[in-house]
């Protein structure tokens, strides 16, 4: 019951949900960056790393049109539904964006993606590629030390011993995930939901300004601005 309530409150399809309100608040930081780019260039070229067309509903068509914004979405999915005329979709790996030349974009945007790419080495490759393909970047990730795990939606889940998380992943549907059918599947699930501390995040983006998003006085997530 509690997990279902949390899932409803983080449903980004509902503009009135807690998750949508938090996302809309922090996207203002990105829009300030886009405004500056527009003033200098008359247009804004964005690469949305690991994103979806649905996400851009919080920005709105009027703002996207006013800023003459074109959004290139890169994701691992074979197809992407809901693309708007201002959007282009590229299937690809965020850790190896070889299809884009250096500084192809004015802004790189990524919301809650870097914690899903797997190993520490993949996180380093992700950060390196972000800084290579774009002049400026906005990268958001949830905080490891926030008590509610935002993907499984179980309080303290990410702080539990590894063996316990494996067992729970095989026994129950949790948050956005159905229960794993095998230990191997559970291990992959945990590997691709590995949150970062502020210290770890800063190491990946050493030249960035790190903004902390707060909730009830606790650090909920971080945004690297560079």
In short:
This protein has 226 residues and is an alpha/beta fold. 35% of the residues lie in helices and 22% in strands.
What is the number of beta strands?
7
Q: What's the number of domains? A: 2
List unreliable stretches of 5+ residues: 1-12
What is the class of the largest domain in the CATH system?
Alpha Beta
Largest sheet features? 7 strands, mixed
CATH topology of the largest domain: Rossmann fold
Q: What's the mean pLDDT score?
A: 91
Approximately what portion of the residues adopt beta-strand conformation? 15-25%
Q: Write the H/E string, N to C.
A: HHEHEEEHEHHHEE
Structural class: alpha/beta
Q: If you compute it from the alpha carbons, what radius of gyration comes out, rounded to the nearest whole angstrom?
A: 18 Å
């Amino acid at each position: 019951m509690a997990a279902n309530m949390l899932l409803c409150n983080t449903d980004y399809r509902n503009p009135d949900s807690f998750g949508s309100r938090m996302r809309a608040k922090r996207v203002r930081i990105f829009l300030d960056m886009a405004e500056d780019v527009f003033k200098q260039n008359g247009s804004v070229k964005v690469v949305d790393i690991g994103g979806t067309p649905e996400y851009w509903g919080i920005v709105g068509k009027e703002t996207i049109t006013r800023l003459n914004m074109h959004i290139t979405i890169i994701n691992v999915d074979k197809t992407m539904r809901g693309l708007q005329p201002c959007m282009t979709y590229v299937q690809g790996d965020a850790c190896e964006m070889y299809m884009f030349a250096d500084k192809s974009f004015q802004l790189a945007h990524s919301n809650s993606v870097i914690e899903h790419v797997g190993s520490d080495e993949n996180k380093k490759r992700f950060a390196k590629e972000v800084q290579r393909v774009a002049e400026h970047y906005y990268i958001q990730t949830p905080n490891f030390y926030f008590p509610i795990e935002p993907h499984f939606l179980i309080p303290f889940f990410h702080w539990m011993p590894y063996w316990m998380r494996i067992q729970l992943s095989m026994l129950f549907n949790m948050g956005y995930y159905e229960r794993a059918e095998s230990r191997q599947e559970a291990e992959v699930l945990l590997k691709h939901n590995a949150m970062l501390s502020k210290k770890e995040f800063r190491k990946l983006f050493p030249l960035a300004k790190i903004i902390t998003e707060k909730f009830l006085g606790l650090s909920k997530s971080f945004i690297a601005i560079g």
